[in-house]
Specification:
- This protein has 203 residues and is of the alpha+beta class.
- The chain has two domains: 87 residues, Winged helix-like DNA-binding domain superfamily/Winged helix DNA-binding domain (Arc Repressor Mutant, subunit A); 78 residues, 2-Layer Sandwich (Alpha-Beta Plaits).
- It has seven helices and six strands; from the N terminus they run E-E-H-H-H-H-H-E-H-E-E-H-E.
- It has a four-stranded antiparallel sheet with strand order 4-5-3-6, covered by helices on one side.
- Helix 2 crosses helix 3 and helix 3 packs across helix 4.
- The radius of gyration is 24 Å and the shape is elongated.
- It starts with 18 loop residues before the first strand and ends in an 8-residue tail after the last strand.
- 20% of the residues are buried.
Length: 203
């Protein structure tokens, strides 16, 4: 089969490009503005994009260097504009916008949140180490934790303890209430509570 006559026309550097995608055997235009060498590493099927009369994007689950650069920028500044990200990763805003949409739809980007300094906003942040009763499955505690709104994160870890939970409460009384709820469930052999005094994050 010969290469199609159409080419991309969205200004992402793909005009006139011809890329042989692995496993396809047909040449298609580059749709992401990342260059022939990079695109040729990916298999392209399914979804059409706005690039030219016919185009393809990467399948779900494929993360390349440009995607990682976008994710790293968003980790540092979740409120960054598409134009700011595009300038940082050397892609056009249109290409960055498509990539972000793909990362969102595939679940790589789960959402955008505000990082609150709880020492200034008030309240307490803490971790609870949990040791389970021998016959209890971790999934049972995970289901229980989902029903406790103060618990923000749940980790099933190797070694001692069995589980680690991060939570945020208004005061020590509310923290004690969460701990007592876990202890009275009959699923927990013991707990250890760690109150956060200060913290920082690379995110």
């Amino acid at each position: 089969m010969g290469a199609p006559a159409w080419v991309g026309k969205d200004g992402d550097g793909c005009v006139g490009s011809r890329v042989v995608f692995a496993g396809v055997g047909v040449q298609y235009p580059c749709t992401d503005g990342v260059g022939v060498a990079e695109c040729a590493r990916h298999t392209a099927f399914s979804c059409a994009t706005s690039c030219g009369r016919r185009a393809f994007r990467y399948p779900r689950g494929v993360i390349d260097a440009a995607d990682r650069a976008i994710l790293n920028y968003l980790r540092a500044d979740g409120r960054a504009t598409v134009a700011e990200i595009a300038a940082s990763v050397s892609l056009s805003p249109a290409a960055v916008s498509r990539r972000m949409a793909r990362l969102e739809s595939s679940g790589v980007i789960k959402g955008y949140v505000a990082i609150v300094d709880d020492t200034r906003a008030g309240g307490l942040e803490a971790f609870i180490e949990v040791r389970m009763v021998g016959a209890v499955d971790a999934d049972e505690l995970a289901d229980m934790a989902r029903g406790i709104p103060q618990i923000l994160e749940f980790y099933n870890v190797a070694g001692d303890p069995d589980l680690l939970m991060r939570l945020r409460v208004d005061d020590r009384e509310e923290l004690a209430g969460v701990v007592n709820t876990l202890r009275r469930s009959g699923k927990v052999a013991g707990t250890k509570t760690l109150i956060v005094l200060d913290s920082w994050s690379r995110a």
